Amino acid sequence: MTNADATPHNASPWHEGERLLQTRIGVAERMAQIGPKVIRDYMPDQHRAFFAQLPFVVMGTVDPQGDPWAGVLEGEPGFAISPDPHTLSVAAAPDADDPLRAGLGLGQSVGLLGIELHTRRRNRMNGHIAAWDGQRFDVAVTQSFGNCPQYIQARDFSFSRPPSLRVATAQAETSQLDDAARALIRASDTFFVASYVDAPDVGSRAVDVSHRGGKPGFVRVDGNVLTIPDFSGNRFFNTLGNLTANPRAGLVFIDFEQGDVLQVSGRAEVVLDSPEIQTFAGAERLWRVHVRRVVRRPGALALRWRFHDYAPTALATGQWPA
């Protein structure tokens, strides 16, 4: 999406890549009407309260090489607060060994996703860094919008150690997925993806980070190439629209039991027409990431998650998506 602050309130917030995909499936006219109503340049009170109760947020940044990265910032609930509808203050920062950190700095564009796994709620907020002292930062809001709970696997969280106790564990960056990385990806039912576009018409960069979920193994791994099904969603096409306009993606996979983090960045492609799509149950299209950079950070997160004991979702029982 383009920068909402630079766009009249009643104008379409969608950029060319998003509009292309919306047009392809016949929802462009509807999205042109919906967009200005659901994409805000401020955080509603409900979203402000939501972020304040979270123990983590997902973040997307872009490093000086132009590569997007997705990662996780954690803290005791209340570490992310909104002092006013146009600002989110985050009392946390990426570790020195986290590739997210290279994309932080005054004026840098970022994407943030607030997601509560145990309730399956999520809200997105994108903007730019308005204050940064190396330990905390403020984000000036340019886009704020909600998402439905589709495809989120419900999990309860706990802390294995104080979140302020950092553990620098990153292994040397590589250009290849190893066997351990492939095993984590194949076992994952959840990951997060960062993408971005440069919008010369408004003189800004728009960064987005979003959630993807499916049955364990829904991401196919072929050597250094990841193939991901795209299921029916809100038809915004934030991620795939970005990848259509700018084929770069950053993904983060989490070992929810051990706190391990796997971050990858690479070249992306969107597959709209191929018999291969039918080999993924429920997929409407596919997208791929040709991994070029890999960072593994064992035990980097203090957070741990476990499935709900009392009400596993359809994902956990292997019945979804159909």
UniProtKB/TrEMBL annotation:
InterPro entries found in the cross-reference section: Pyridox_Oxase_N (IPR011576), Split_barrel_FMN-bd (IPR012349)
Q: Which Gene3D superfamilies match?
A: Electron Transport, Fmn-binding Protein, Chain A
- This protein is called Pyridoxamine 5'-phosphate oxidase family protein
Q: Where is the Pyridoxamine 5'-phosphate oxidase N-terminal domain?
A: 43-153, 177-283
Pfam families documented for this protein: PNPOx_N
